[in-house]
Write a structure and sequence with these properties.
With 451 residues, this protein is of the alpha+beta class. It is built from 11 helices and 16 strands. Bound molecules: zinc ion (ZN). Zinc ion (ZN) binds next to loops.
């Protein structure tokens, strides 16, 4: 009994033929705080609710023959008029339009005549489908998230839906299934922290994996998670993390280090050659975390290229990802998005743009080739390593400035990676801000976040 990706109920009688879909709605919504029940006080309202002239609509129309859906649940139907003095529902401020926060169900019939048994069953099924889509309706609570039209418009709609609607019974019937535990087993929840330095100080929780989905809400307010707040996550897919509480989804880039996780031992003086890899499956989860702004196909390409090249080069896939993410600003820099140059190869302070590659694979191959030339010498390389190193566009410059094999450990890259002249003063290479050290530290956070 699901809703499709555009917010249409697949069980609606007009789902396939789309008859009576209404043009009367506001595009989008400002949250889903309550379901409002109505009675049409008429015999066939399909035409009225779906013709432009009427300027009214409802998301659903519950008739004896079945339920029609007139407006997508992602949009706001014109069902509730406006606030009238003395309104009982206080879920949103009086300055707000209640239609933008509610889903409306018209029930065809008369206020003084009870709904048919079939309509009652359909109403229960529809409420359950809505709750399956929006967990804030588990459970339904009359007067709070399950309303009468008269709770909004007491003057003009005192009898909508009328005294024969037993809200306690309607809620109990809808809750009888929606409160049951989910049948699909979920992986154990993991604790994460919202990054302390989030722009704006919070992340928005959404009802689906994408900015286009409506905001989730909690206790009548738009659901936001504060910077530094600790959350439980049970799934990360396509760059979006699902909250184990069921509240909704947040963008995975906003998360950091699993709280209470056992630290993985990547020593400060980790060697570049022979450093440990995690494999493509877990690497993909890390790519989802740090490259969440990039399209899914590109995250696939990054994962596959790093997995393949890391194995051939015998360099940690996590550290390669860490270096590429650091160099590209989590895969958002112009130099990366326009040239697939993962590490500023050939770029200089005086404005040289640097090398250009034809894709993710060749860009990463050049970066890893360059890394190999820092970490070891051509004589010490395996055949596969030597092949990758042959794609380093900066091999000659490196050889001249520092010599091949000048940085066997990640920390040794300090003041050497991308720097032509050797520094005069010995650098604080173990500082957390030092180049190679920061790559190791970043790699540790990826490991901890994906345990
Ligand atoms: Zn009404």
């Amino acid at each position: 009994m699901p809703f499709d990706a555009n917010g249409w109920w697949t069980e609606a009688v007009n789902y396939h033929d789309k008859r009576f879909r209404s043009p009367n709605f506001y595009s989008g919504n400002k949250g889903r705080l309550a379901v409002v029940l109505h009675i049409t006080d008429g015999t066939d309202s399909r035409g009225w609710l779906s013709k432009p002239l009427s300027k009214v609509s409802s998301h659903f129309l519950n008739r004896d023959e079945g339920v029609y859906q007139l407006v997508s649940i992602f949009d706001s139907s014109w069902a509730n008029g406006i606030w009238e003095p003395g309104h009982a529902w206080k879920g949103v401020a009086d300055s707000e339009n209640p239609n933008k926060y509610t889903i409306s169900i018209e029930n065809e019939g008369r206020p003084k005549k009870a709904l048919s048994a079939k309509q009652q069953q359909q109403l229960t099924a529809l409420l359950q489908a809505i709750a399956a889509r929006y967990p804030q309706f588990i459970p339904y609570r009359p007067g709070i998230n399950l309303l009468r039209h008269t709770d909004i418009s007491p003057s003009h709609r005192p009898n909508c839906p009328g005294p024969l609607f037993d809200f306690a019974r309607i809620a109990a019937a809808a809750n009888s299934v929606t409160s049951a535990p989910p049948v699909v087993p979920t992986p154990p929840a993991r604790k994460y922290r919202i990054k302390p330095a989030i722009p704006g100080g919070y992340v928005q929780v959404r009802q689906g994996r994408g900015d286009g989905y409506p905001e989730a809400s909690i206790a009548g307010l738009s659901a936001r998670l504060r910077a530094g707040e600790i959350v439980e996550i049970d799934d990360v897919t396509s760059g979006w993390a699902h909250l184990a509480s069921g509240l909704g989804f947040i963008e995975a880039w906003a998360l950091e280090v699993a709280v209470g996780a056992t630290p993985i031992a990547l020593p400060d003086d980790l060697l570049i050659i022979g450093s440990p890899s995690v494999g493509a499956t877990r690497l993909r989860r890390m790519v989802d975390l740090c490259a969440s702004r990039r399209p899914e196909a590109e995250r696939d390409a990054i994962t596959n290229a790093i997995s393949d090249l890391a194995a051939k080069a015998n360099i940690s896939d996590v550290c390669i990802l860490s270096q590429a993410a650091k160099e590209t600003g989590n895969f958002t820099s112009d130099r990366y998005t326009k040239s697939y140059n993962f590490a500023g190869l050939g770029a200089t302070n005086d404005g040289a743009w640097g090398s250009t590659f034809d894709g993710v694979y060749s860009g990463l191959r050049a970066m890893i080739g360059h890394l190999l030339n820092y970490a070891t010498t051509p004589e010490a390389m395996t055949q596969e390593q030597r092949l990758i190193a042959s794609f380093d566009p900066r091999a000659d410059a490196l050889k001249k400035a520092h010599g091949f094999g000048c940085a066997p450990r990640w920390v040794d890259l300090w003041q050497k990676w991308g720097v032509i002249a050797p520094p005069k003063v010995p650098p604080p290479k173990m500082s957390k801000d030092a180049y190679g050290m920061s790559i190791v530290i970043r790699a540790r956070s990826y490991l901890e976040a994906t345990q």
